[in-house]
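thread: overnight batch results

M.L. [08:02]
morning all. the overnight job finished for the chain we discussed friday. pasting input first so we're all looking at the same thing
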Amino acid sequence: MYLFLDRFFFIFHSAWILFAVTGWIPRRTRRLNLAALLLTAFSWFGLGLFYGFGYCLCTDWHWQVRRELGDHDLPRSYMKFLADTLLGVDVTAHVVDAITVGGFFAALATSIYLNWRSSRET
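M.L. [08:03]
and the structure it wrote out:
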């Protein structure tokens, strides 16, 4: 069961991130993209007030599963985990966090603007 959950979280979380960064491109997914970005912001900044800035509920659940599988040397950030796993190099957490936050705010600003512009066209 834990192996299934590990794979599920890897696919789901990676797909969420990809959608958050690129979901504003197709016109038909822009509202859903904005909702995904706002949910991410709620987790990072809202829940982050209680659990620490950048807290991600999905990462928390995934790390619980991976600990059950015996993996106890996990980075704080899922993006750091992806960078290390997919690139095969040890990218510093500071660099990964800076790219992550920059990408998030760029996607959020783009999504807000495009959703605003679409609402004015109708």
